[in-house]
Amino acid sequence: MTVPRVRPAAVADRVPPGPPRRAMPGVLLRLVRDRLGLMTSAVTEYGDAVRVAAGPRTMYIFNHPDHAKHVLADNAANYHKGLGLQQARRALGDGLLTSEGELWRKQRRTIQPAFQSARIAAQAGAVAEEATALVARLRERCGTGPVDVTGALTGLTLGVLGRTLLDADLGAFATVGHAFEAVQDQAMFEMVSLSMVPTWVPLPKQLRFRRAKGELRRVVDQLVADRGPGWSPEADDVVSRLVASTRAEADPAVGARRLHDELVTLLLAGHETTASTLGWSLYLVDRHPEVARRLRDEARTVLGDRPPVHDDLRRLTYTAMVVQEAMRLYPPVWILTRQALRDDEVGGYRVPAGSDVLVSPYTLHRNAAYWDEPDRFDPERFDPARPNERPRYAYIPFGAGPRFCVGNNLGMMEAVFVLALIARDLRLRAVPGRAVVPEPMLSLRIRGGLHMTVHEA
Ligand code: HEM
Q1: pTM, 2 dp
Q2: pLDDT digits (tens, 9 = 90+) for 363-420
Q3: Helices (runs of H) and strands (runs of E) counted in the chain
């Protein structure tokens, strides 16, 4: 993997436009209450580069594909992970998502090979089994009233990670989902309060966070202990690779902590993103009966009544288009945050060292310069047979550059299998009168969860 070199110091002196200082109280309030609205109105009002002075910090929002390319890929070496992730680090430690520099490079080299598409193909059977079990569980709820679909999807994605990464039954650790929620809550609180409230202040959130951290430690330690001698030094799966690499650490305590941090990170990064993709996909499909029909037809033609296998991914093209379009409108990672290490120049604007730099897939994916009728749900945009004239960085649901998502193949396989099986066998309908509102936390959730009734297809 090549890491781009740092460019020479910035030369431009231009400062991007943005709300005046007197608007700051309103900006801070919206940061707490309406983050998507704040981002959207900032780029609508001021354009593709916006400077927002908020309390002690200055944020630069970039909404042009070239800017995203510069920050995330071309000059990635000049940036560390920023707001939100810096805070999440208190819970995740130095796992792949939050570590930097040489440690990150070493971890990425260890973990990435285990996620390559050939290796992921070997996990297709486990993913299909978990997906089939989910459909069976949902089917039992036919005609029984609304189901907490978000909860069911989170259970599924944790189950898949347990099977594929750890060979364990994560269903037995029902508290994990709640523990991750508490971690996110706290990370988000620190992000929107711009870390101005010291972490020793005993707020209820803070106490929940500490309990959750302890809970995650207990669960992961248990998972590792259960595998015990089952680890094989020859095996090439994620955990065996991690165990081998952390055992090489001179200090065993450091090795144990690294192993723990990596596993907690993979569980967090891998479950909510995929559950969010599926939740938004199901919501959108329900609102577009024609899309629901095409999905069902494709699933029945390709799969008949058998479970999916890896090779089906090539044939479930419409299903993949629906997933991609859902991730365009509702990208699970709605914001990518970075902090500039040295002065930089982005799109002709000066970005001083220490600034918070924000690239939002949510606003980028709805930038009218690159998407016709950007707010319309239209899976045809991703028809592989259609010419694609969009710049590569106009669509970045899995990020870009060296920090590109390591689990994208697994996440996509899971989303396509689950959506195809649900579309083939069931019809999930939104509960009338219950609004579906995005809630931008570390991932883009549905506020209060998605609740749907279940019907036979
Ligand atoms: C549809 C599902 C998924 C989406 C949309 C998604 C999205 C992303 C995005 C946008 C990033 C980049 C974050 C940044 O640059 O700050 C990322 C990084 C990451 N993702 Fe995913 N992800 C998904 C599934 C998964 C899965 C299944 C796993 C693991 C099992 C995973 C593990 C990771 C890790 C470890 C990183 C950090 C990589 C690094 O910094 O080197 N993700 N993901």
Answers
A1: 0.93
A2: 999 999 999 999 999 999 999 999 888 999 999 999 999 999 999 999 999 999 999 9
A3: 16, 12
- Which domains does the chain possess? 21-456 (1.10.630.10)
* DSSP secondary structure code for residue 3 in this structure: P
Q: What share of the chain is helix, strand, coil (3-state, %, to 5)?
A: 55, 10, 30
Residue-wise pLDDT for 81-115, tens only, equals 988 776 677 778 889 999 999 999 999 999 998 89
Residues 6+ apart with CB under 8 A from 174: none
Which of 86, 111, 110 is CA-nearest to residue 98? 86
Residues facing 344 on adjacent strands: 351
Helix (H, G, I), strand (E, B) or coil at 250: coil
Pocket of ligand 1 contains residue 242 by CB under 6 Å: no
> Where on the phi/psi map is residue 433: left (φ > 0), alpha (ψ -120 to 50), or beta?
left
Three-state DSSP state, 432: coil
Please identify, by atom number, the ligand 1 atom nearest to the C-alpha of residue 85.
Answer: 16
Rounded distance between C-alpha atoms, residue 285 and residue 356, angstroms: 36
The alpha carbon of 403 and the centre of ligand 1 are apart by a number of angstroms equal to: 8
In what order do the strands lie in the sheet containing 356-359? 49-54, 57-62, 356-359, 336-340, 79-81
Which residue matches tokens 């649901």? 397
- Return the amino acid letter for 418: V
Angle at 357 between CA 351 and CA 362, to 5 degrees: 135
Atom of ligand 1 nearest to the CA of 98: 40
Q: Is residue 271 within 6 Å of ligand 1 at its C-beta?
A: no
